[in-house]
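Worked problem 6 (solution included).
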Amino acid sequence: MGSKKILIAEDSSVIQNITRKVLQFQNYEIETAKDGLQVLEAMAMEDFDAILMDINMPKMDGMECAKKIRAMSDPKKSKIPIIAITGNARNYTSKDFNAVGINDYMQKPVNFDDLVEKLSSYLEK
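Solution. The predicted structure is:
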């Protein structure tokens, strides 16, 4: 079995780089995107096993992006696990996340041990 491919959608390059390093250490293959539009472009070109989605991104935020992913015609892509990473600036609730198809969420600052655990629980399914 090849390594799992994770798309990190995060506009902060600092957080992006730390997350990439932590996940590469866990043998995940990593691609990154700075906004929701880049996420959709990346997904059009290749398959991922999970997405870590920052909620507050420029051009298209994580909520809108998740809705568009769930509306994709490709069943594999439309069902990809999405874990939201949020500073919760707009105080979204888990119901809000569920409504757009986000599987799970974590607060910033991210606890990377929890993140690794959460990711592996989705990827083992």
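Discussion: The mean pLDDT is 94.
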